[in-house]
Write a structure and sequence with these properties.
With about 450 residues, the protein is mainly α. It is built from 17 helices and no strands. It folds into two domains: about 220 residues, no CATH class; about 210 residues, no CATH class. Helix 5 crosses helix 11 and helix 7 packs antiparallel against helix 8. It starts with a helix and ends with a helix.
Amino acid sequence: MSKPLGRALGRMEGSARVLALIKLANVGLTLIWGFAVTYVFVRALPLGEFQAFLLLVAFGNFTISAEFGLTSIIYARLRRHWLGLGKEDVGGFRLEEMGVLFLFLALLILGGLAILVIALAAGALQTGMPLLFLLFFLSACLNLPALLAKRALAAVDGNFLWEALDCLRRVITIALLLLILRGLDARVSVALQLVVSIAVIGYAIALVHRRLRMDVEHWLSFRVGGGHVRAHYLRDIGASAAFTLSDIVAYNAPYFTIALASQDARPMLIFDFFFKMSRALSMLVRATVEAALPRITRAYHAKEGARLRQLMLRALGMALFFATGASAALLLFGGWIFERLFAGRAAIGRIDLLLIDGALIALAVICVSVYVQAALGRFGHLLKRSLPFLAGSLLSVPIARIVAGEAFDLPFLSLYTLTLVVAACLHSVSLRRLMRAAA
């Protein structure tokens, strides 16, 4: 890399505004890709196949989330190391940890793939297109090493580099996805997306390797790295694993409880619509929070309470700005978007949209709390805060089904929204205590 280019990258890395803009651009492309998946496959697949495809997506979400927060742990540990904190500690960060974590993610992907193959062979997930399902699952699971590379680069002030690379990846994969509607075989499209993702992620890992001045031995020293992990942060792994599992179930369980409660497509499509809106909002919030994380983490570790409070209030303000803007847009265009997205196979009402709006505003507060506290390594506290959300998510569909019978979609959405509001109130208390603790 030339010196002028390096200096330009350094200036962009140091600007919270530039980071926020490139992250928001990447979020926009990610959202387009997510909606394009639904837009393309709801038209390319019969309705029964598409419902099975939604279950595949939910299983992919479970698998991706089952990294148990390891990427957040590595960010918190590597960030402290990069800021020069705890380098002399016995339990401080070691380069050998990186290889162990990538190995774990590879085994996780293989395990998820094995479960999917068994489910397809046993008929638990029924489809006439097993190869497409397998390829799409692998494509989704590549987000695991991508996320680890992203967090590692972010911890060493490499946010801009990753976001630029990921923008390029998203543009190419969106184009390949839309070509399905032009006649490209869906299996070929997804396979080419796999190749593009592998190339970009590989380059990102090479950047981490160079920035940390690692050797090949660091990646392959599984015994040393594994021993260090076991000896010094199994407690963090346990807390983050429990928190991640709680979050996985809380966000994805309605896909499965709805499938068990009814064969009607409407409840599933309405929840999928809410899920997509919540993913969109969470990515926008994450982009703004992650742009501020270098400053937030510095302020917290330096005990600069006033600066931390200023940054936190700014992050919350931006999150609520996005949430209210999205809510207003949904009230105006939500019905039209829903009809176009799902090819007119169901309709959504004004009350449904109002409930989704309330849920999004609550979700904005939850997201800020989770992203900041995970970056600070507060996994045990996050676990406690996640349990009410988990209980509400698991019970919403059964209670609504008992109370309302077959027409349970509106009662379910009401209970799910109430659950998010309660969780947001608890996270607000956590953030206040966090800011007081740093004073």
